[in-house]
Amino acid sequence: MIDSAALMQPMEDAGWQGGAIRLERAGDAHLEALRACFLPDDPVWEIYPVPLHGEHFDTSARAMLANPARLIFAVLLDGEVTGMTSYLNLAPDRQTLEIGGTFMAPRVRGSGLNARVKRLLLGRAFASGVRRVEFRIDERNARSQAAVAKLGAVREGVLRAERVTWTGFVRDTGIWSILAQEWAARG
Fold it and tell me: Is 61 inside any structural domain?
């Protein structure tokens, strides 16, 4: 059985050399800080599935926060919002969920923050009774694919023409996963 209440609790990692990390449920109090992270000229928007920049922010952010199938976390580094990430598609009957909807401000990309955040999310998910964690990644996003591979995720295949992104691009989505016993074996 999955402990859904535990999944929603804040997560912290004070031991990272880049600063203290805290993940807390995103809400109205985080919106302006998140808006500041989502720069309109960021090239990531070409491969991001939904628009969260400029005039799109309010509609997209509110829809994401209102979606009961998402547990969205604001990512704070030394108390400053630097991005977001989510648990998606929680399926207690199958003991699975997806980690996705991650966006990091350009200034923290490549710093190792995203890997630490993913480790927090994975650790909490497995400690809460999740058996399988999935990642669904745009096939064009080599950076994210490499990142989840470093965490120990296994590439399972590709869902061809799986979704249409906000730009109208018909996206192929790679499916990656980590099982609880695989995570435990990594120590």
Answer: yes
